[in-house]
Amino acid sequence: MLGLVFVGLIVAWLIVNAIKEPIDFFNVFLIGLTQGAVYALVALGYTLVYGILQLINFAHGDVFALSGLFSTTILLSVFGITDASTTGAIVLALGATFLIVAAFGALVNCSIEFVAYRRLRNAPRLSVLITAVGMSFIVQNISLAIYDVNAHSIPPLVSSSSVFNIHGVHYSWDQFFVILVTAPVLVLLSWLVKTTKQGKAMRATSQDPEAAAIMGIDVNRTISFTFALAGGLAGVGAVLFLTEFNMRYDTGFTLGLIAFTAAVLGGIGNLPGAVLGGLVIGFVESFNNGLGWHAPGSDWTQSIIFALLIAILVFRPEGLLGERTPEGA
Amino acid sequence: MATRSHRARASARGYRERFTKASGRSRVGVWWRKLPPWVRGYSVLITVVTLAVTYPFYVDNLPTNIPVILSFPSLHDSVTILVFVMMAVGLNVVVGYAGLLDLGYVAFYAIGAYTAGWLASGQFQQVNVHVGSVGVGSAERGIHVSVWMVLLIAGIVTAVGGILIGLPTLRLRGDYLAIVTLGFGEIIPQFVRNADNLHGFDLTHGTFGISPIDAPGFGGSLHSALGLPVRYDDSFPPTPDRLFYWTMLGLLLLTVFCSFRLRDSRLGRAWIAIREDETAAGAMGIPLMRTKTWSYAIGAFFGGIAGAYIATFNSGAFPTQFDFNISVFLLCMVILGGMGSLWGVVVAGTILAWLNFDGLGNIGGWLNQNTPLNIDVPKYSFGIYGLLIVLMMLFRPTGLIPERRRKLEIEEGTHGPLDESLYEMRSANEPGAGERGSPGRQPRG
């Protein structure tokens, strides 16, 4: 009941904002969509791993940051992309970067699983969780050792000219680019999980690892594959993030937590839920930062998101789309 | 069966050999082994406490060119180290005794520090309240409560905070609880940073923090009667540091004593029962929520006092002190020492806190001077702590000085719901979620 009132108030607040400043409102909406897409990619990584191991992979956000920093090296040093590069070179380089960085993220995530989590398969859950926190710091410090404390960025590779511009509502190509990459990736992922044999193995392992093993599924390989998939998504997300923002060695920590919130919001372990959660969190962030009428402002964004996380875990641990499972209670 | 008993005998032989090798030759060793265990325990304790109490007198005469570690911590750093040990002991109540993973302990530290900031400084210029404060002119505006009272109030306020955080969240399972506490640990510093303009009201003075904060002291009458200091920070160095050090040592010993007594109390046994098997504990009539909330409240109480003390010691409470990193750092102390093992946590806490303030810098300096390496070691401190955590979890999950009971739990694999192994066969209607007893794992889409 209280929840409904609260949601009602938020909707009312949004409507008032939309009426007062419609142009701002829709611009902010489009920003939220872009950010939400990146969050969705990272949140999927959390959800995939949680679905199969019931483990919150704290290191995921840091894998994201390390992949992002690695992509700056690839783009700037290996391919030598600058502002002045030709369109053809940029397209080729970006495409290759996506592939390389996704592979890199997959490799890092798999190594983490291989080095740490695999040895703890029969250990108490608490131990694995604590190990994940430790791994997060290790990966973060690897980024720190290689890329130091300064923020890294790439030149604006995608033009910021408008896809459309209706009465001041401006949707630029670099924003659209994020969706343009995310959407096929999501379709691909959904195909992979739903129809391929490997996807079937993943679903089986997530439901019951013992039974899956009895049925001849190589559980360890399936888990590694899941980590690789999660790492790859983080890699793609990281490159997309870099087209909009710059990145530091510790960017991953907060972003990872926010993405985790998105995964929990959608229902952890639930793939469409993670995407939905990512979009919702993206909107929460952009509306809070961008709207003019009685918005708390960007100082409070993180607090609001974490408060949301706590509220979901306390009142609806199964998330928006999840089923009620013992993991939630 | 035969192989196992054979192996056991072989290991016993090996143990005996090692034992004789280690102490058989020296007479002192034999004599030491013959003493009853309680004498051994107490003599070690008394020696360590004596060394700690007299530390201010010989710290300046200690060598400063020891290989690798270079020097022992200065008195000023020792106070901070002890504060961190106290917090680790507090966290041990939550993580070690009750088995609840708390990744936001820094929130309690922050609440404690800011309570001290509000009650013993000129933060609220609108009012002029003096309650037993020493060395503060009555014309100075703001709230000035005696720091001794502030310590206690901070503990209580933080304990209430712990209960408020705990009540809605403690029914969640282990990893969700960890995330919720982490969320609180992130919200509170941000709140503190932003709360300098709550509809025009300056609650925390934003990024500048609250400073200065009053120092503890004994006031004029005790000063003239017993010669106790009026106020800790109004004499010449090194006296203030010494006073702060001794007070902190006293607080720490008190904390350790309380923690010890708590562990063996009815409440402590209930915590350990919950840690070992929540469902069974509930079935034996232990009120789960109340017991868990108590562990939170007591852990928070110690954290709050430690936070308030460091605020008065540093004469300030600043938002940058309350990173998530600190929570992990404290957790690392508890894990390194052995979850639930009080002495382990004290020893590991001292070592790690020292590493954090001096040790890593010293060791790095020594390495850079004596080897071709050139690494800025303190920069990677948290990577090192992370590595420590992972290595401990992989190779010695019971910690450096394992608690006997915890060791049995980990080795025998009696897992409570929180300790569930990743792959444990559970039948369909076995309760997997503690008190609610909801059905076991269900297939998910």
Proportion of beta-strand residues of chain A: under 5%
The average pLDDT score of chain A comes to: 86
User: Could you tell me the radius of gyration of chain A in angstroms?
Assistant: 20 Å
Query: Helical amount among residues of chain B, as a percent range?
Result: 55-70%
Task: Outline the low-pLDDT stretches of chain A.
Answer: none
Adjacency order of strands in the biggest sheet of chain B? 1-3-2
Reading the helices and strands of chain A in chain order gives HHHHHEEHHHHHHH
Structural class, judged by helices and strands of chain B? mainly alpha
Number of helices of chain B: 17
Overall outline of chain B = globular
Portion of residues within helices of chain A: over 70%
Q: What value does the Rg of chain B take, in angstroms?
A: 24 Å
Name the assembly state.
heterodimer
Structural class of chain A: mainly alpha
Largest contact between chains: A-B, 60 and 63 residues
Summary?
The complex is a heterodimer of chains A (329) and B (445). Chain A is an all-alpha fold and 329 residues long.
Task: Explain what you see.
The complex is a heterodimer of chains A (329) and B (445). Chain A has 329 residues and is mainly α. Helix content of chain A is 73%, strand content 3%. Chain A contains 12 helices and 2 strands; from the N terminus they run αααααββααααααα. In chain A, β1 (162-166) and β2 form a beta hairpin. Chain A is globular, with a radius of gyration of 20 Å. The model of chain A has no long low-confidence stretch (mean pLDDT 86). In chain B, α6 (106-119) runs antiparallel to α7. The chains are: A mainly alpha (329), B mainly alpha (445). At the A-B interface, α5, α10 and α12 of A face α8, α14 and α16 of B.
